[in-house]
Q: What sequence folds into this?
């Protein structure tokens, strides 16, 4: 359910109704910071049927949004009430995504597949996908992707899912991803921007596909970025040993962070704690979908550095920490930081080096005071 809501709520003029109880509503409404709606089902609705309550709410919202989407949750799904053909609600988008159907990513993809997108053969641009309101890097990723594509002279057609509904009607024939775990079915896949190497490879492919000149300025910028990271990492390694690190998050993001750690710092990855289904990788991977599993993974091989969420920070309060995935509590986040592209790799390594340096300097100061 949550994944479907985070996808649909990213469409600016889409009204999203959560068809379920208050418990199904308050968490996404709090975390996603979007104007969501709910039928707030109670015991009486479960016994006598909830369709009328839903129909009433749809009627109240019509006219406020270009289109309305309803996300079905566990309770109405279990009682088997059909809400797909409510009289007078033929244009309502219904996503049957109760929590027991699968993971966050499953719900996101289900909603993404149902979006009223249409491929426009005459569109010269490319689509972006993998954008989710739950992702702390989402808007920064959009900004960085548009910046890179502007060097190619290639416009962005549709952003899945962070655009207006009308933009979905003119989607391009090819799509590049900012997060492969949330790939959409719209447009032919044309690579991803997760990291400098993949960015250069993807831009090269797009330049050939659309018959545009490859931007030499991007190649120079990439070389400068790699050089800056390498020099900073070398300075760190002259003073400190390569760290061991535990990385937690969605698989594609976490695997990328592991590659960056290994490439620049010769770090040992104690575990890649995946919040979703893991893909192919050379790193030691384990499921990390509960606090108990995270606690066990961290205790089994204590790392020098933790990259993850507030859960991991809470379990390792004295270990250098880099905020990376939801939930991120107790911190103000105003800047739209990317994880993709050139700026994303620079930002990730900056955060890693600063976390390790601050902790090392703090340890030295405490030792001196003794």
A:
């Amino acid at each position: 359910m949550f994944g479907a809501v985070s996808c649909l709520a990213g469409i600016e003029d889409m009204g999203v109704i959560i068809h379920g109880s208050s418990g199904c509503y308050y968490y996404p409404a709090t975390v996603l910071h979007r104007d969501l709606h709910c039928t707030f089902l109670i015991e009486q609705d479960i016994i006598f049927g909830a369709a009328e309550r839903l129909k009433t709410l749809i009627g109240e919202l019509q006219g406020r949004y270009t289109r309305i989407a309803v996300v079905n949750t566990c309770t109405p799904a279990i009682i088997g009430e059909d809400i797909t053909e409510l009289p007078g609600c033929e244009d309502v988008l219904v996503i049957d995504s109760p929590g027991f159907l699968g993971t966050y990513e499953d719900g996101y993809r289900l909603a993404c597949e149902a979006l009223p997108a249409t491929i426009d053969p005459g569109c010269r641009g490319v689509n972006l996908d993998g954008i989710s309101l739950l992702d702390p890097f989402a808007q920064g990723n959009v900004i960085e992707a548009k910046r890179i594509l502007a060097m190619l002279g290639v416009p962005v057609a549709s952003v899945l899912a962070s655009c207006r509904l009308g933009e979905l009607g003119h989607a391009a024939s090819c799509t590049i991803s900012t997060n492969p775990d949330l790939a959409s079915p719209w447009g032919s896949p044309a690579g991803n921007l997760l990291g400098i190497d993949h960015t250069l490879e993807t831009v090269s492919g797009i330049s050939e596909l659309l018959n545009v000149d490859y931007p030499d300025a991007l190649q120079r910028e990439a070389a400068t970025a790699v050089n800056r990271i390498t020099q900073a990492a070398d300075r760190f390694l002259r003073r400190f040993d390569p760290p061991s690190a535990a990385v937690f998050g969605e698989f594609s993001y976490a695997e990328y962070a592991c590659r960056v750690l290994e490439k620049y710092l010769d770090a040992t990855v104690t575990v890649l704690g995946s919040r979703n289904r893991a893909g192919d990788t050379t790193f030691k991977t384990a499921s990390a979908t509960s606090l108990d599993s995270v606690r066990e993974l961290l205790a089994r091989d204590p790392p020098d550095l933790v990259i993850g969420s507030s859960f991991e920070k809470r379990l390792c309060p004295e270990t250098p920490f880099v905020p990376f995935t939801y939930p991120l509590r107790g911190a103000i986040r105003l800047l739209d930081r990317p994880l993709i592209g050139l700026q994303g790799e620079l930002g990730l390594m900056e955060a890693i080096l600063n976390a390790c340096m601050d902790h090392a300097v703090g340890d030295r100061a405490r030792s001196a005071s003794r």
User: Anything to note?
Assistant: The longest helix spans residues 341-369.
